[in-house]
Amino acid sequence: MNDDRRHLDLAARLALRGLGRVEPNPLVGCVIVRDGRIIGMGHHRRFGGVHAEIDAAEDCWRRGEDPRGATVYVTLEPCNGTGRNPPCSQRLISLGVREVVFACDDPNPLKAGGAKALREAGIAARRSDASPAASGLAAPFLLRLREGRPWVIAKWAQTIDGRIATRTGESKWISNEGSRRRVHQWRARVDAVLTGIGTVIADDPMLTARGVRLRRTASRVVVDSDLDLAPESLLARSAREVPTIVACDRDLASSGFTGGARARLEDAGVCVLGIAPDPAGRGIDLRAMLEQLWRVRGIATVMVEAGPGLLGSLCDADLIDEAVVYVAPMLLGDELAKGVAAGRLAESLSQARRFDLLRTRRVGHDVELTYRRRRETP
Questions:
Q1: Which residue spans within the chain are E strands per DSSP?
Q2: What φ, ψ does residue 304 adopt, rounded to 5°?
Q3: Burial code of 7-34, b = ≥16 C-beta within 10 A, e = fewer?
Q4: What are 330-378's pLDDT values in tens digits?
Q5: Terminal-to-terminal C-alpha distance of the chain
Q6: pLDDT band at 1, cuts 50/70/90?
Q7: pLDDT over 70 percentage in the chain
Q8: Distance in angstroms (rounded) separating the CA atoms of residues 159 and 6
Q9: Cα–Cα distance, 4 to 85 (Å, whole number)
Q10: Where are the alpha helices (DSSP H) in 206-306?
Q11: CA geometry: angle at 221 spanning 220 and 227, to 5°?
Q12: Partners of 247 in the β-ladder
């Protein structure tokens, strides 16, 4: 099992190289080992490209090695269905590998069954839970299949005492320059950046990735129930260059009352998206909005950069799947300074949303903490 952990951990690190390039496909990494020696490494590099197992096999051949008789460690069960690539299970059978160890069952019913096909061909195939890093890689893919919505990453910078702004709203800058550069890297890897109209009015942000290598251009999505986005805002003025979506109340999206404002935004290139109202009467239905972003626009990953109101609403609806938190070495000590989330009632600890700590990273004097929502496996 120590070998499982070591090799699957490496496969997980390889898989992360595809972040921002392979979605909506899952991140997958692969390591090929013979007699304890790594003879090939690979990962799924881009959407539509070869799968990790084949990438690793090609690495074997470049090294002058033969994968026949070797053990394959892969973060996801080899696929058993034809899509843009032939089934990896059949390719591994033709390569003559001895054993396949995978960290997660393939959740896609159209592609599952690779382990069974391998066993029927006389190749040992087993799932290993030795590497939590590898087992959790497919979680965003699984969520999209199960819930029909994007994976939601909430990002914020806070003081030691959990404040994201002073009582007057000042927040520039809590985090340091290195942390802010990390945020730009995140923007360059997701499909959309989500914010609220309050943040737009207060900060007039661009929400684009700057100074980093672009892996994809993220759409900007504004939760704006009352359609208050000004055509003079930076978001609207740059909508021809960067896709910009305003999610407003469904009635306002077709009402004659808002026709003039809607026309000015659409003339600027902004897409106005009508969403059903929230059942609890708090603006628009955020889950319905996310489902529409995935179903209609293929948005697979969303990063939230917003104030406590929208973060609180997302938390209340249990729509935060991952949190990236930058903790700065400062203490406000002001009970009226703005907290991370607001508007949710939680009278006991049992009502808290539970997260698991995935990674910690020091960024200068800041600390980057990455959490994942703890959910029961269906």
A1: 29-34, 37-43, 71-74, 99-102, 124-127, 151-158, 163-165, 192-196, 219-223, 244-249, 271-275, 301-304, 322-327, 338-339, 355-363, 366-373
A2: -100, 125
A3: bbbbbbebbeebbbbbbbbbbbbbbbbb
A4: 999 999 999 998 888 888 898 889 999 999 999 999 999 999 999 865 4
A5: 26
A6: low
A7: 99
A8: 36
A9: 27
A10: 234-237, 259-267, 286-297
A11: 125
A12: 223, 273
pLDDT value for 377? 56
Burial of 132 (0-12, 13-18, 19+ CB in 10 A): middle
User: In angstroms, what CA-CA distances link 356 with 132, 145, 288, 321?
Assistant: 11, 22, 26, 11
Answer positive or negative: Cα dihedral of 17, 19, 25, 27: positive
Radius of gyration of the chain (CA): 23
Active site residue 232: no
Measured distance CA(176)–CA(327) in Å, rounded:
10
What pTM value is reported for the model?
A: 0.90
Q: Which residue has the tokens 């929400």?
A: 207
- Catalytic residue selected from 53, 77, 305, 368: 53
Instruction: Give SS3 for 308.
Output: helix
- Say how many C-beta atoms besides its own lie within 10 A of residue 189's C-beta: 21
- Helices marked H in 298-344: 308-316
